[in-house]
Every structure is written in structure tokens, then in C-alpha cells.
Amino acid sequence: MNIKIRNEIIHQASGGLILEQAWLQYADGPRIRTGNLINLGEKIQLHLVIQGWEGEQGQIRIGASEKLTTDEGVCFLNEQDLFAAYDLLPLKAVEKITLSAVVEKIDRLSDYFKIEFKVYSKLNESQFIEGYYLLHI
Q1: What does the angle CA 5 – CA 9 – CA 10 come to, to the nearest 5 degrees?
Q2: Which long-range contacts (CB under 8 A, 24 or more apart) does 33-39 make?
Q3: Has residue 30 got a pLDDT over 80?
Q4: What is the mean pLDDT of residues 32-53?
Q5: Cβ contact 113:134 at 8 Å
Q6: What are the pLDDT digits (tens) for 43-77?
Q7: DSSP letters of 89-130?
Q8: What is the spatial distance between Cα 83 and Cα 47, in angstroms, rounded to a whole number?
Q9: Is 3 helix (H, G, I), strand (E, B) or coil?
Q10: Distance (Å, whole) CA 83 – CA 69
């Protein structure tokens, strides 16, 4: 296995999960440049390639949370379960997960925006990957 983690994504995996690859990309195509420097209003996608999910009869139910805060702790987004509408999914379908974030408006300058994420199994609470990355404007 060739582990490739880009864009200074800090993470922790549990329950036998392995984060094989992680990177940030603009929704319209190119990877985020060095330093995670973005412009306001750009949709950013976090791509995760995960191995080791355990399910039941080849299926799994997952959840994902995402929180966006400024360097001063002001929270812009706090979603607890981005996949609440989804029921059972094939194990193969959750090997690659994409989460999105957009910093649209600011009312004061910030040194960075911190995006915290967690992807987890609803069938096996020991299986999760959590972490964060910083975006600069």
C-alpha cells in the first residue's frame, strides 16, 4: 500500500481503518496549491481513500461530520451527520469519500480557517477517521 497524504491533512484512524490517500481539490478540477491558499467562494473538496471498513453482508452505514472555525474559534459550520439521509451502502462505495467546504463571506480577517472532519461507521463505533486541515485566504 502506498500512503499519500497531501495538503498538510492531519488525521487519526481507528478500528482497523487505513487512510491510504487524502488530498484537497477545487470542485472545478485542480488540486489545492501548496500552503492551502484559496479564494473566498471557492468550493474545496476533501478526498479520502479508506481501506478496512467492516460491514454486514457487504454493506455498511456511515456518517460524516464537518466543522469550520476561524483561528479565533468562530464557528461557521458544524454539521454532525452529512450522510444522515443514506441507509446501507456497499462497502466498495465507501472506500472513496468526498467532503466539501466553502468559505463564502468573512467580516474580519483570519489567519486561517480550520476544517475538522470525521468519517465513521454507524455499525462499528470503533471504526472512524478524524482529522483537520487549515485553509488560508
Answers
A1: 110
A2: 35/136, 36/7, 36/8, 36/133, 36/134, 36/135, 36/136, 37/136, 37/137, 38/103, 38/135, 38/136, 38/137, 39/137
A3: yes
A4: 94
A5: yes
A6: 999 999 999 999 999 999 999 999 999 999 999 89
A7: EEGGGGSEEEEEEE----SS--S-EEEEEEEEESS-TT-EEE
A8: 15
A9: coil
A10: 21
Residue in this structure with the C-alpha cell 467492516, named with its chain if needed: 54
The predicted model gives 111-134 an average pLDDT of 97
Of 46, 38, 113, 45, the closest CA to residue 76 belongs to 113
Instruction: For the beta carbon of residue 39, count every other beta carbon within 10 angstroms.
Output: 8
Q: pLDDT value at position 110?
A: 87
Residue for grid cell 479565533: 72
Q: How many other C-beta atoms can be found within 10 angstroms of the C-beta atom of residue 44?
A: 21
pTM exceeds 0.90 for this model: yes
